[in-house]
Amino acid sequence: MRVRSAVVRITAAVLAVGCITACADGAPTASDPAAPTARDSARSTAPGGAAGGAGTSAASVRASASCTDGKCTDNSRASGSENRPGTGGGRHPCSPSVSLDRYSDALDKTTFQGTFIGNLSALARDTDGSIAAVSDRSVLIGLNGRTHRPVRAARITDEKGAVLDAEGLAVEPGGTYLVSSETEPSVRRYDRSGTLLGRLPVPDALRVAPAGQAQSNQTFEGLALRPGGGTLTAAMEGQLTGDGKDTAGRPLLRFQTWQRYGAWPGPAAYRLGKQYAYPVDAGLGVSEIAALSDGRLLVLERGFTAGVGNTVRLYLADPRRAADVSGVPKLPGGKTVRPAPKKLLADLGACPSLGAPAHQPQTNPLLDNIEGMTITGRAPGGRLRLLLVSDDNESPKQITRLYELTVRPGGH
């Protein structure tokens, strides 16, 4: 049917959004100059508040969605006319180095082909331009690189068919996946269908007690593969038993690296590499890392205080200047043992809330349990585009929320 008037065009756009808007906590007002796209409209306003998502230009969406008991099953596809996320709308400064482009709650409490899309603990840019995600309930999920809608899902298991507490994800240049689990901990390789291909070696000291010195649920929370695929890094979320603090009173965590040998494509041969110390802010843990091409890391630190909410800080760390501590039984290990220096890029609590809702106390309602982060591209002036995601733990008090940021790391 040909659209003959502005009224008809607006009506068609509203109907295309379908269940996404129907399941929202609110709806954008007609006077909102930055009306969200379909994928940003799931929770576009806080009750009684202003519009929640940062605006983009209107998108043409072919929607196929249904809602049952307040949950949306959304299998929509965006047409090529939709603007790529990060190019539309204004930037909202969080600090001199970081700005918030927009957020979206469109994935919150949704399903895809019978799979719950939540519990997301890691993101990685895939070789086909999509965004790979992993849930800590042992599911690999693919998101459209433009709309961030689910396009595939595959369950993964360990060698005995048991589920993983999957917390980290990296995509190899050949398109296979590296997934870390904090249970043992472990790093395993999977093909795109979720078939297990192998497992990387892990130092004994990093294993959960009594096998090693690690604490339960405090192991490989972050995983990052340096562009080119030569160096893999896993970040411990918490300390080893016996490790101490630096001179500033910050707990020292251990980051483990592996070096890959052999040309792509072909079976990977990873060998244990350098291990270094990272000074995490008191009361926080490392929830994710992302690797820059020059060897530096973006590090996401996160904490939670009941009745107060989440603290989330983004740091730039330089492990190139850190000492190898793989042979140091207890940190700090003396004055000659240099941890990786870090620089604060932004406390995300200082970002504008953009009217975002929160289902539990938060000093900034924009924040939630942010666990995943990946670099999705570059912006002018040497800036990076980042995509973050929060883990809702299938809790009505938490939200699966995507955040698009622009970051200027600086230096080389």
Annotation keywords:
412 residues, 5-stranded antiparallel β-sheet, 2 helices
- SSE topology string: HHEEEEEEEEEEEEEEEEEEEEEEEEEEE
Query: What overall form do the CA principal axes indicate?
Result: globular
Radius of gyration: 21 Å
Helix content: under 10%
Total strands: the figure is: 27
Could you please describe the fold and organization of this structure?
4% of the residues lie in helices and 38% in strands. It is built from 2 helices and 27 strands. The strands form 7 sheets. A 5-stranded antiparallel beta sheet has the order 5-6-27-26-25, with no helix packed on it. The protein has a 4-stranded mixed beta sheet with strand order 2-3-7-8. Residues 1-89 have low confidence and may be disordered.
Please summarize what this structure is.
The chain is mostly beta strands and 412 residues long. Helix content is 4%, strand content 38%. The strands form seven sheets. Strands 5-6-27-26-25 form a five-stranded antiparallel β-sheet, with no helix packed on it. Strands 2-3-7-8 form a four-stranded mixed β-sheet. Strands 9-10-11-12 form a four-stranded antiparallel β-sheet, with no helix packed on it.
SSE blueprint and pairings:
Layout: H1 6-17, H2 19-22, E1 61-62, E2 65-68, E3 71-74, E4 77-78, E5 92-93, E6 98-104, E7 110-112, E8 115-117, E9 120-125, E10 131-135, E11 139-143, E12 150-155, E13 166-171, E14 177-181, E15 186-190, E16 196-199, E17 220-225, E18 231-236, E19 252-261, E20 269-279, E21 285-291, E22 297-305, E23 309-317, E24 342-347, E25 370-379, E26 383-390, E27 402-407
Parallel strand pairs: 3-7
Antiparallel strand pairs: 1-4, 2-3, 5-6, 6-27, 7-8, 9-10, 10-11, 11-12, 13-14, 14-15, 15-16, 17-18, 18-19, 19-20, 21-22, 22-23, 23-24, 25-26, 26-27
